[in-house]
Amino acid sequence: MSQLIKLQAGVPGLVEADAWQLVRLPAGEAEVKKQAGKVVQFRLTGAETASAGQIDATEVPAGPVLLPLSVFLARRDALADRLAAREIGVWLETHELVETLAEAQPDLSVFPVIGVHIERFADGRAYSAAALLRTRFGFTGELRAFGDVLRDQLFFLRRVGFDAFLVRADRNAAEAIASFNDFSEPYQGSTVIEAPLWRRHAR
User: Which residue blocks in 2-124 are alpha helix, DSSP H?
Assistant: First the structure.
């Protein structure tokens, strides 16, 4: 059994085997940035993710693959046939802009899966990326969160539009499913339930 949880008709369940192979960039030199004398914990929004050398060195295997945004952008012409065959998904880092993907590929429905990599659970930009994909850009395919994905995040990740969750390898994904029932009635509106509580219930 995998660590992947998917919503089927709104009901979460574990997936036995993940059909999508995650492609990662080769390791590069870590760039340390400082601000006011302190190391910046997260990459700045809009910062470049990969060098040309890393992109060129990335191998794209056969079959359904989730590609880094930078690799897709560099090779999208060569991948056109596989994209049409729905074998290509794409994933973003939290500092990468959803708008960059939408400008390169305005019809996001060609992607069966879009992923967002959560490098650290404290980085809230994944929530903004998901909300933008679902609302402004109308993405209706599978929206997957992976990386530092923990039980306590699942309920909130679902509310902004994620419907697939790859739980961190050292956590129990089966037990994490219970977190979707942590709260019975969310107060605020969201991409899942648009109306806030006070509009859903008459006084």
Answer: 52-57, 69-75, 80-84, 98-104
Question: 173-176 contacts: CB < 8 A, separation 24 or more?
Answer: 173/1, 173/2, 173/3, 173/4, 173/5, 173/14, 174/1, 174/14, 175/151, 176/5, 176/150, 176/151
CA distance 153 to 167: 10
pTM attached to this predicted model: 0.87
Nearest of 148, 120, 145, 144 to residue 43 by alpha carbon: 120
Q: Which domains does the chain have, with CATH numbers?
A: 4-23+52-182 (3.20.20.70)
Q: Is the pLDDT of residue 202 over 70?
A: no
164 near 143, Cβ under 8 Å? yes
Residue carrying structure tokens 């490098």: 119
